[in-house]
Amino acid sequence: MTTARDVMHPGAQCIPVGETLDRAAQLMRDMDVGALPICDNDDRLCGIITDRDIVVKCIAAGHDPSRVTAGDLAQGTPRWIAADADILDVVEEMAGRQIKRLPVIENKRLVGMISEADLGRHLPEEHVATFVERVYTTH
């Protein structure tokens, strides 16, 4: 059985809730990623921030990214998957919720992230096609 751990990108780095969005953008640039998990002071996942969030919800809204924190943009309960979850459960979670990145959790701690590209590298073509159709089709 292929698990979330088998396909994830290990060692995802959290950004603290109190860190500013300009710093989040710098980390994304330095790490060459488009999203960062947001973690609280106990390293618990409390959201995900994307490069698009920074542009649309901060800059385009007229806010200063050096004054807005990652926690300010964290909304709702973040979706995640257990490290030992079956890959088909990963696909269902991502496709069913139309999300492109999914944190992987073990022992209540972030251990990695799964992206569309990770799925593309590890799934048979027919599963990738189904995933893409479900994520990018508007309902």
Can you characterise this structure?
This protein is 42% helix and 22% strand. It has one domain: CBS-domain (Roll), CATH 3.10.580. The chain has helices spanning 4-7, 21-31, 51-59, 70-73, 87-97, 116-122, 125-136; strands at residues 9-10, 15-16, 35-39, 45-50, 81-82, 101-106, 109-115. The protein is of the alpha/beta class.
Quaternary status: single chain
**CATH domain class:** Alpha Beta
Overall geometry comes to globular
Q: How much strand?
A: 15-25%
Query: What is the total number of structural domains?
Result: 1
Structural class by helix and strand composition? alpha/beta
Question: How are the strands of the largest sheet arranged?
Answer: 1-7-6-5
Distance linking N and C termini: 32 Å
Could you tell me the CATH topology label.
CBS-domain
